[in-house]
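Session log. Operator J.P. requested a structure for one protein chain; no other inputs attached. Running the standard single-chain path with token output.
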Amino acid sequence: MRNVPSYFAAALAIAALGTAIAGLWRPTDPAEAQKRVPPPSREIAQYSFSPIVRQAAPAVVNVYVRSRVQAFNSPFADDPLFRRFFGEQFGLPSERVQSSLGSGVIVNPDGIIVTNTHVIKARGETEIRVALADKREFDAKVVMQDEKTDIAVLKIEGGDGRFPSIEIEDSDSLEVGDLVLAIGNPFGVGQTVTSGIISALSRTEVGRSDAQVFLQTDAAINPGNSGGALVDMDGKLVGINTMIVSKSGGSQGIGFAIPSNLVRLYVDSALTGRKVERPWLGAKLEAVTRDIAEGLGLDRVVGAVVTRVSNTGPAATAGLQPGDVIVRVDGFEVADPRSVYYRLTTRGAGNTARLDVMRKGRPQAVNVALQPPPKAGRDDVRNLSGNHPFDGARVSNLLPGLAEEMGLDDGEGVVVLSVRQGAIAARLGFQPGDVILQIGQDTIASVADLEKAVGDRQRVWQVAVKRGGRVLKLQVPG
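Structure written below.
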């Protein structure tokens, strides 16, 4: 027992020495310092996103869609042999109700809601109902929708006209790494908030159409979040959550939102009644590949190369040339043609855009006056009918703006705009986007040429059509 005090004194001495050493030592690694240093105050330890959520969440709604569609019932419905020969629709017709859900964002106190087209798109008679965060429910009607951008605008019917709304922010002010919150109705569980950062800007590789450009975020987005809000730390709308990349169907940290600057265009269009039109450039663009970059002496594989310039059009007037590589639009770097068109669209027809291009290895600046594509005149479009292969087809002269919109090479020719179901053209398999080149020995350069060619009866129709870059030659009995 006499040794215990000496051991205790030694322990105190060692502890004192350790304290002194700890007082002199400071971690040099920032990560190590962050692990070892507690919050300096209770206030900092209690930091929260709750003020932002209180501001933004009341403007985020749940969107419920019910549609009545015709279904066909048959005792052989599950028989693959019958499905092979009779297709999906055989048996006795009956009415079936389909339900879907998603999210939306009120962007105007009058009850204007932005959501995704794929949220509200349904076949047959459709009913749309929205539920607010305060549990009030209202019917809503579609004001406008655009499948290419996947943006739809709704209007709440009824109410006092003083709905909670969210302010639309400039999405170009975002930087990679900025904090954001996603608010929506995932899996139908009710309004849910998740947090993350902006992972990337101007993503174009994942869209289904050339009009889609996205913000990428790692804030958890799941089925049902579509059409919901992506907000910044000021509680303002920076994007509409739209899609995810996932192998499991759930969030894996790769979500995409439509930038608010594009959303703003469609909201303004819905409020004013003016159609959103992508400005006509009058040039064909292709993405810069590694081979193109090496051939043009570029140090990076980025930008959009001009492969052709129309004789008439804004690009030709501005002096844009084949071989020019567009690397920036209005100071914003562009990765590919979709990025270019996105910047021109948000800039808007009637304005001027500055294009920074690389021409033969040297930087150039080109100012392009943006204008809407030329409209089709009375003599440019025809609805064809008769005993010929194009019965039931709506066709048009291949105008430059139309060619650009449909992703076709502009020039002379006639393009199929639509095909009436059940008509001869539909049974023969003609599709929108087909370019009619030749009938028999006659070259088809205009709808007038086409009308003349199908006016003469033929025992065998010989038709040449361009589809997807390939020329198809058909022989059809008369």
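Operator note: The radius of gyration is 30 Å.
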